[in-house]
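In keeping with the milestone schedule agreed at the kick-off meeting, the structural modelling team has produced records for the first pair of proteins. Each record is given below as a sequence line and a structure-token line. The laboratory manager (R.T.) confirmed that both were archived under the project's standard naming scheme.
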Amino acid sequence: MTVKDRLRIHETRLLSDNWYVLKTTRFDWKRRDGVWQTQNREHYDRGNGAVLLPYNPAARTVLLVRQFRLPAYLNGYDDLLIEAAAGLLDDAEPEVRIRAEVEEELGYRLGAVRKVFEAFMSPGSVTEILHFFVAEYDPSMRIGDGGGHPDEGEDIEVLEPTLDEALAMIADGRIRDAKTIMLLQHLALTLRT
């Protein structure tokens, strides 16, 4: 039995289309015991995205960004967030979009990039699928300062810690962004083998 066989959608209503799209849906779900249960859920659609962690194997460094994130602050985090470069696809292919984001945010034009996986980041409320990439970099690939687009509200600082320093930042709580943690752990496991 597929999910489609276990789902009956009754109504979907638009709640907000201000920054992204917030909807509510009333549906019946057929539970494992065969009983149909009516539920209501809100879901946020901001589009799909991509994230990339550049690493320099010779120096054992990575490139990260530090920036203000209002939702993190509103949830009690009184610091700038340290993250891997990321952005929404905006109808572009994931590799095309993430290359542009890396140039805008980090100031690097990368060679080969490698997709390592896809993941839903908060599937209970957000529809987004995130495409995860890694790529090697070296100083010769730098084409600018990065920092993002001020007209889009971006005020991005570029960081270049060693992989060990970045992993320590996860352990001590300075890196709290899930996508960044996932890519740093992936890189650490990949480089061990």
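The second protein of the pair:
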Amino acid sequence: MHDFIHTTHPQRVVFGAGSLRHLAREIDALGAKRALVLCTPEQRPQAERVAASLGAQAAGLFDRAVMHVPVETAREARDLARQLGADCAVALGGGSTTGLGKAIALESGLPIVAIPTTYAGSEMTPIYGLTENGLKKTGKDPRVLPRTVIYDPELSRTLPVGLSVTSGINAIAHAAEGLYAQDSNPVMDLMAEEGIAALARALPAIRTQPDDLAARSDALYGAWLCGGVLGAVGMALHHKLCHTLGGSFNLPHAEVHTVVLPHALAFNADAAPRAMERIARALGGVSAPAAVYALARDNGAPVALKDIGMRAADLDRAADIAVANPYWNPRPFGPAERDAIRALLQRAFDGEPPA
């Protein structure tokens, strides 16, 4: 028998090739007049074109978004928005830029228009994260949910294949954990399985032909669904480990998700068999952990923490941090499970198949 609560978040999604042309219209629909355009340093040229297209609607540009949203960067961006009289923010890019927009909204309440160029999915969530003194803290607040999201597959055609794959598997992680979330529901289960399947089709096609617009559209569609799951239900062990590794050891976000996910699924496999069946079916495999590992390995993504900047000497500290304040998980992983988490991290560090 079903027994669940489902909350629908108020959000507008504009999806389709060329939909960036609707940005000015969407800003008007928010009742806003002056937009601060946000981006990473690498995406400044693209952001400048967006700002130029807005003309007088562009209040200015902030190009210092970085991973894990350091609190100092967030304060700098909030101060600039205030100085320029911006009444909304346009976040162009991946999770780093969206996260910066959320940090501005958290304090100021400015509405956000998110324009994702990766498959991170955070644009669909009221979840924010800020890193201070080497620790990443996350929370939920309806003020940070982007009011409008513009998904334009044209903008991701030049996303490097490697980042496309890791970003896509990052999105798959949201849906995978949603399937065994404490507050899961049938709507999210459907979205999760469809989102995983779309990305499983898209990523090999993108590796074969990076500018394939149909594959890019499929990947963005999958990322939208997976992001919707992330925004609606709780996450578990996998996300706790990735927040620990990313926030405390400054590892690259999408790559961490890619490496850790097969091992987190293996840890939870016996405690969440129905979720594992749905993940495996969406990926076209028999074992969910093995299918995720193969998707990464076969498409050139990293499968070892040692290859993305983690030091062996830090594994013990990572295990300690992860179990000190654990998220809910179908298989508990508090201090009593510290050795099992340490072993999981070792396998992920070495790049071994999940066990």
